[in-house]
Amino acid sequence: MPRVKPEVLKSLVKSMFEAAGTPAEEAEIVADHLVRSNLYGHDSHGVVRTQYYLGLIGEKIMPGAEVEVVQETASTAVLDGHWGFGQVTGRVAMEMAIEKARETGIGMVTLSNVFHTGRVGEYTEMALEHDMIGMAFGGGNQPQVVAPTGRTRVLGTNPLAISVPAGEERPFRLDMATSVVAAGKMSYYLSEGRPVPEGWILDSEGNPTTDPADFRPRLRDMVDSYAKDRPLRERGSLLPFGGYKGFNLGVFNEIVGAFLAERGQERKRGGFAFIAIDVSKFRPVEDFKRDVDGKIRTIKASERRPSCDKVLVAGDPEHFTYLERSRKGIPIGERLWGELIEAAQKLGVDAEAIVEEEAV
Amino acid sequence: MPRVKPEVLKSLVKSMFEAAGTPAEEAEIVADHLVRSNLYGHDSHGVVRTQYYLGLIGEKIMPGAEVEVVQETASTAVLDGHWGFGQVTGRVAMEMAIEKARETGIGMVTLSNVFHTGRVGEYTEMALEHDMIGMAFGGGNQPQVVAPTGRTRVLGTNPLAISVPAGEERPFRLDMATSVVAAGKMSYYLSEGRPVPEGWILDSEGNPTTDPADFRPRLRDMVDSYAKDRPLRERGSLLPFGGYKGFNLGVFNEIVGAFLAERGQERKRGGFAFIAIDVSKFRPVEDFKRDVDGKIRTIKASERRPSCDKVLVAGDPEHFTYLERSRKGIPIGERLWGELIEAAQKLGVDAEAIVEEEAV
Question: Per the CB < 8 Å rule, is A260 touching B282?
Fold first, then answer.
């Protein structure tokens, strides 16, 4: 698989969004977000989304849209994103939560009319440089997750992210779907023709299965269905993480993410809630960080058990991937790379020049 | 197993705390809390704790202690419980969070120097009558939980509770340990002489086991160890719920529950954080409740899958137990009942009169 330098990838993707009519500063934010997702190993939220987003511009994504403050108190706000890039409006929302936390100790901002914000960990990490805790709840996207004893899809994969500043240790950074795994993984297993691990998905009857096509149809099945007028296999569902407990945390994500943000407009697609907590309003920041460091060290020092990998704390997997990819470049599938270059050229972007210039 | 009317149990327990020097209004709160825990089926937080608490009065529990406001902003506060009953100081903290949320949309209050608050769901439920969302995070109690790939205890069972008001449906009420199960369950299996289900505990070497004595020594082993001067079997650990994700949510609970509350005193025992969110500052309450109702109905209407129980939403298990126990009385083991009566008599409480009067 070819590896591409992060700067090259960002420059290419940014140029593409600009060529499609996105203001330069927004294109910068979106490209930066996508490439950082790749750097952290969250490829499903990385540059693979470029063409998807480009295709929705003017329809579900409105570059340059103004964020509107619908309701506001000293510590809270409700924002209408007016379908601007989620990567842009999400930052506006989190910045506002941080400002409010600086004044009153805690700030909470919800955001509606937003299509996709990308990796939600991005926003909670914004709190770190202010010595604040950041939280983000996404809720109400397309139902894909089944209740622990249920048979049908009832809940989105509703992501949850939390960032906490540490002292000498790396920050604590949790960024997770409330399903067992992100739905994007199924596409990967489908394209690789491999079965998924047990305990991830159910078929449409609610039976455990390891065939990713039970969850999401293969492209050739869709073509077949169309050509031969045969019904497609019904779609299965993703299991929630952590059974009853994890499922209900997913439900809560929808409650704060969507129901506290929703503006009742036609093109509903749920929403997001962002919380910032100013550590200094509770304890001296250095004391707090020392305690966080201590906990992280205690956990990492706990011996790993027989036949297990080493003990990790939230943020470690992303960190190790980041180190490797910053150094060696981001692995991009041949097909995706080809498609990106082609799409760039169609938009009039001189992809070759970008690739060459940055390679120097 | 004998069943005791909730009012009888509450009257008995309240009299015992009063006889042990607890102010009447505090004894009322603690007794009410313990009995409601039983009514909801959380027996490990119910009247079984009575003698334990009584034994700690004057040592780790100081009836009548004043709660001190250590630090305060418009939306946050740090409280020192000064080792008053957790059931009392926890209510003070949540009431303050609710007041702040009424002013600024969201309130967050942390509480340190608190021994045990009982069932944390109790506090989040206080938000419901104000049309607010309540959250509670407990962190930093005795380490019993192992990291997903670890071998030794590194984390408390750090409880998390969330309550959300609904319209015609019952409120959403999640009240959970961040371990697979509460540690109290092991005592039950030990006393019953039964193996625990797979996936709950590890032995001291980090190997999966179903013998509860691998987690916590049997009383007779402790006596044996003492009498014959033999070392006790090393203690094993509880697994976290939901693997890497659930474990790190438990870590976060400790961060907000303990590290944002800790006052660095000698008798540290972690702490609690309470958050109240005023729904009306985000959306019209009726719209919000209609959406919560809708979600609860969608989930419950999703067909249950082959060989599974019916689909439940957070709060359902507690509700069904509550209905049954309010009607039929609370099941109390013969031994526990005998011990309570005896302890009451030693305290000079006329247990027989209470039992008879309420039975009329």
Answer: yes
Q: Are residues A163 and A206 located together in one domain of the fold?
A: no
Shared domain for B139 and B259, answered yes or no, is yes
Domain of residue B7 covers 1-64+329-360
Which amino acid is located at A312 in the chain?
L
Q: Which of A176, A277, A305 faces B150 most closely, judged by CB atoms?
A: A305
CATH number of the domain that A22 lies in? 1.10.1530.10
Domain count, chain B: 3
β B106-112/B76-80 pair status: parallel
Question: Residues A219-227: contacts with CB within 8 Å, 24+ apart?
Answer: none
- Looking at the fold, whether B55 and B202 belong to one and the same domain comes out as no
**Percent share of chain B, pLDDT over 90:** 77
Interface test with A, best of B110, B113, B302 (most A CBs within 10 A): B302
Find out whether A73 and A90 touch, Cβ atoms under 8 Å.
no
Is the residue at A301 inside a domain?
Answer: no
ipTM score of complex: 0.94
Considering the domain architecture, whether residues A197 and A166 belong to the same structural domain is answered as: no
Residue-wise pLDDT tens digits, B20-45: 999 999 999 999 999 999 999 998 88
pTM here is: 0.94
Q: Does B108 touch chain A (CB under 8 A)?
A: yes
Distance CA B32, CA B18 (A): 13
Are B262 and A283 inside 8 Å of each other by CB?
A: yes
Q: Which of B106, B157, B169, B204 to mutate to test the interface with A (most CBs of A within 10 A)?
A: B106
Q: Is the distance from CB of A183 to CB of A235 less than 8 angstroms?
A: no
In a shared domain, residues B234 and B246? no
**What integer pLDDT is reported at residue B2 of this predicted model?**
84
A93 and A54 co-located in one domain? no
Residue B231 sits in a domain whose CATH number is 3.30.60
What's the token pair of residue B205? Answer: 């070497």
Other beta carbons within 10 angstroms of residue B336's beta carbon come to 18
Kindly state the tokens that stand for B4. 């005791």
The DSSP secondary-structure symbol of A229 reads: T
- The CATH code of the domain that includes A277 is 3.30.1370.60
From chain A, pick out residues whose CB is under 8 angstroms from the CB of B112. none
Q: Which of A70, A71, A76 to mutate to test the interface with B (most CBs of B within 10 A)?
A: A76
Is B318 part of any domain? Answer: no
Same domain? For B72 and B165 the reply is: yes
CA-nearest residue of chain A to B177?
A245
Q: Judge if A204 and A102 occupy the same domain.
A: no
- B150 and A259 within 8 Å at the Cβ level: the answer is no
Instruction: Count CB atoms within 10 A of the CB of residue A234.
Output: 11
Least confident range of B16-20, B134-138, B185-189: B185-189
Print the SS3 string covering chain B: CCEECHHHHHHHHHHHHHHCCCCHHHHHHHHHHHHHHHHCCCHHHCHHHHHHHHHHECCCECCCCCCEEEEECCCEEEEECCCCCHHHHHHHHHHHHHHHHHHHCEEEEEEECCCCCCCCHHHHHCCHHHCEEEEEEEECCCCCEECCCECCEEECCCCEEEEECCCCCCCEEEEECCECCCCHHHHHHHHHCCCCCCCCEECCCCCEECCHHHCCCCHHHHHHHHHHCCCCCCCCEECECCHHHHHHHHHHHHHHHHHCCCCCCCCCCCEEEEEEEEHHHCCCHHHHHHHHHHHHHHHHHCCECCCCCCCCCCCHHHHHHHHHHHHHCEECCHHHHHHHHHHHHHCCCCHHHHHHHHHC
Please indicate, yes or no, if residue B315 is contained in any of the structural domains: no
Query: Residue A221: its pLDDT value, please?
Result: 73
Are B76 and A105 within 8 A, CB to CB? yes
On whether residue B38 sits in a domain, the answer given is yes
d(CA A153, CA A147): 8
Nearest Cβ partner for B108 among A106, A172, A251? A106
